[in-house]
Amino acid sequence: MNQQEVAAWIGLDWADKKHSIHLQVRDGKREHRMLEQKPDIIHEWVAELRQRFDGQRVAIAIEQRKGAVVHALMTYDFIVLYPINPKALARYREAFRTSGAKDDPSDSELLLDLVSKHADKLRAWVPDTVEARKLQLLCEQRRKIVNHRVALTNRITSLLKQYFPQALDWVGDVASIQACDFLANWPTLSAVQRARKETLRKFYRQHNCRKTSVIDERISKISNAVPLTNDAAIIEPLSLSVQIYAGQLRSLIRAVQQFDKQIVETFAQHPDHDVFDSFPGAGQVCAPRLAAAFGTDRSRWQSAVEIQSHSGIAPVTERSGDSKWIHHRLACPKFMKQTFHEFSDQSIRFSKWARAHYDELRSRGKDHHAALRALAYKWIRILFRCWKDRKPYSEEKYLAALRRRGSPLTEKIA
Fold first, then answer.
1. Residue numbers in the chain where pLDDT is lower than 70
2. Fewer CB within 10 Å, N- or C-terminus of the chain?
3. C-alpha to C-alpha distance for 160 and 253, rounded to whole angstroms
């Protein structure tokens, strides 16, 4: 943004209770004030800015991309937000304070320095449409719920192995409603062995287990099972924990289902639905996440390289003297990087060239995750082109293009 277009520059260091603000008017002195973390106070301050600068542009640097303050500021059309990576601010701080001292007022002044002197090197945050931001937040929150679900299933599995390991064979998938109901009714071996055979049969049928042979085999094993331990000091506390965790897990499973429903409905209305839904392996989970990663603003990304670097998929090259080394990026939007990584993992099951490329990388000694990152690097170029041109992906067209270029992948595919 042109310096002359901005009436004032602001560095805002947010906190849970109070925010430190440094403001500099164009060709003017710096001012400092503190604001309480209250919605009405923040909106009053923004109204003052609008009135003071007659609605002219005000650039604000803030050390976060999400959160209550950002969500409040993004609703104003005259404010230009510059989200600053916390690591970037930390490195900038260290340049002037080698002792490592940190203070909120000084941080807001450093943020003001960054945005007023180096705005040409920073990327201004431009809000996407309401629907696009809603989809992004739905996908991110769903992933957090899934992470909680995985943690709970791991905890339940660990507890069962200590006193009731046979249950892992009888409950089916631990991350299922069937498992939750089984453990809620019969958290111990003695409890399930006291149940009538017909009760167990009815339970499995109600949970869509229709194979009589499978049900009979499980019931037979339940009848003949020998406990791992009879020590009540172990069984009673652990079984109580399993019952409680099973109840929590049931809620998380239902929550994921609710998120899935909302995501499907929101993604169906997305203007790029057909583009991202066309990619092999994207499916119900990855396609909305890919759409959220790219957004709807075509001016946001000028090249595939920008997305490859921003997402952390592109490797980092470091040089010092005659030394040179390459490693994958650590400082990057983790959810975005995870999205491309997981999509690549799914694509090798549905795309012939993706499978061939992955196999070639593995044959050259790369581990699974390094091969997926390299594959994701290729996929991003294709995703970017389809997104930019608003055209769905075609596996046949891409394979034909590989053959025209004489790509060695065509031999491996054949």
1. 1-4, 16, 64-68, 75, 97-105, 316-331
2. C
3. 20
- In 275-364, the DSSP E strands lie at 316-320, 323-327
Nearest residue to 117 (alpha-carbon basis) of 24, 49, 32, 54 = 24
Count CA atoms within 13 Å of residue 311 on its CB side.
29
- Looking at CATH, the fold of the domain delimited by 3-127 is given as Nucleotidyltransferase; domain 5 (3.30.420)
Enter the DSSP assignment of 121.
G
State pLDDT tens for residues 341-379. 999 999 999 999 999 999 999 999 999 999 999 999 999
CB 187 within 8 A of CB 239: yes
Specify the pLDDT at position 324. 59
Rounded distance between C-alpha atoms, residue 409 and residue 320, angstroms = 36
Q: What is the pLDDT of residue 90?
A: 82
As its CATH architecture, domain 133-266 has: Orthogonal Bundle (1.10)
**Structural domain spans, the chain:** 3-127, 133-266, 273-413
Q: How far apart are CA 350 and CA 339, in angstroms?
A: 17
Nearest to 252 by CA among 175, 317, 307, 200: 175
**pTM of structure:** 0.78
> 31 forms bridges with which residues in the sheet?
23
pLDDT in tens, 134-157: 999 999 999 999 999 999 999 999
